[in-house]
Amino acid sequence: MDARLVRAYLNALPDAPPDARSVERVRACLASLQSPDVRYLVASVSGPGARAIADVAAAVLRSAGARTGILDGSLAASSVDGAPLDDALIASAGTVSASAAHTLARTDPHLGDLGRRDAEVTLLFAAFAGSGQRVVLVVDEEVNALDPAHAPLVDLAVIAGADAATFDTALSLVPEGRPVVVGSLDPALRARAEERLAALGVPALIAGRDHRIDARDGVLTFVVRDAPYVSFPAPRGLALDHIAAGIATALALGVMGIRMREEWVTAGIAALAEPAVA
Questions:
Q1: Sign of torsion, CA 77 81 83 85?
Q2: 44: nearest Cα among 201, 174, 144, 184
Q3: Looking at residues 79-90, what average pLDDT do you find?
Q4: Number of folded domains in the chain?
Q5: Where are the alpha helices (DSSP H) in 86-219?
Q6: What is the 8-class DSSP label of residue 37?
Q7: Which of 60, 134, 186, 225 could lock 66 by a disulfide, CB 3.0 to 4.6 Å apart?
Q8: What angle, rounded to 10 degrees, do the helices at 240-254 and 262-272 form?
Q9: What is the pLDDT, as a whole number, of residue 98?
Q10: pTM, to two decimals
């Protein structure tokens, strides 16, 4: 199919909210496509501020030479290596995702038919593999456990700032044993988060305990476990909490095989900064 037909196919599908079988449907589709999601690192970024954190992490990772895609709430809001999906990629990924939908209907009819969100997510995971992404950041601002974007087994979970209920839902989505980055939380919730993560025995980088941003005279310093890691000019238009969690996310993924240097962090932050007002 060409891109026009792919868009027509997507628009013809029911535009209903994800249901209790959406995650399972997309998992079945990805399996029929030989699991394209295993060809790159996957990090979920959940909670308020998730997109801003993902943007920071992606900019740093791209500066380190790791092509990074972002899966957000729609095809239009998602990106490959910092750019929208072009027609050629939509055509190729859409064709294989439509094939996966036909396979699903034939082999797993009990799961029901794909909705539009299911099909878009399947297309995006295929597109990330087809475009050679090294990392994919899955954004879920609302922390919706039914969203089919949660179908892959993630390599890293990032929990952005949240209230207690949102934090609990986000934590329930973390696969057993996977490392976690936690963004800024109020003191009471942070203490609760520390207790729960310690009980689970998972590696964790928690804002305020393991990472933070120190600001002085227009210069920001990212600090990891009380050791200064990198300093850079304070950018316009970026919240300090989002910068800290984004850098922590990039460094946590770097441990999984992406070489990281201080100057690449600086370059990534600079690429995101809003230009000064004349």
A1: negative
A2: 174
A3: 97
A4: 1
A5: 87-107, 116-130, 164-172, 187-200
A6: G
A7: 134
A8: 140
A9: 93
A10: 0.95
